[in-house]
Amino acid sequence: MDEDRARSLITAERNRVEKLLADTTGAGLDDRAAANEPGDMSDPAQRLTAEQGDDAVASSLRERLEALDRAEARIAAGTYGFSVRSGVPIPDARLVADPAAELTVGEAAEN
Question: What is the signed CA dihedral for 64, 59, 25, 97, rounded to 10 degrees?
Fold first, then answer.
């Protein structure tokens, strides 16, 4: 894949993930603020579940950003588009679908 195209795909994905992370973090703060408000505490588990869900999503999004960082490092190293496990080229269609892909489809299915 062309390096400029790869950078463009990674930047677009980073922007998307950062927005989702900001939205999720904001929702988590809202859930925590609502839990601290006086009022009906008839089902505190519902608020705790929402907080835990927000935390889990935020953690997943942070991991996605780390994967994008690794993809950018592979571009800089000249190894982007090749499996980190086997060195086999990753098809462009897979990289378009997932710009942070580190493995071929077959290798990913083995995990």
Answer: 20
CA atoms within 13 A on the CB side of 96: 5
Categorise residue 103: left if φ over 0, alpha if ψ from -120 to 50, beta otherwise. beta
Q: At what angle do helices 44-77 and 3-35 cross, to 10 degrees?
A: 160
**Half-sphere exposure of residue 87: CA atoms within 13 angstroms, side-chain side:** 0
* Tens-digit pLDDT profile for residues 42-96: 555 555 566 677 788 899 999 999 999 999 999 999 999 999 999 999 999 999 9
55: tokens are 């935390």
* Burial classification of residue 40, based on how many CB atoms lie within 10 Å of its CB (0-12 exposed, 13-18 middle, 19 or more buried): exposed
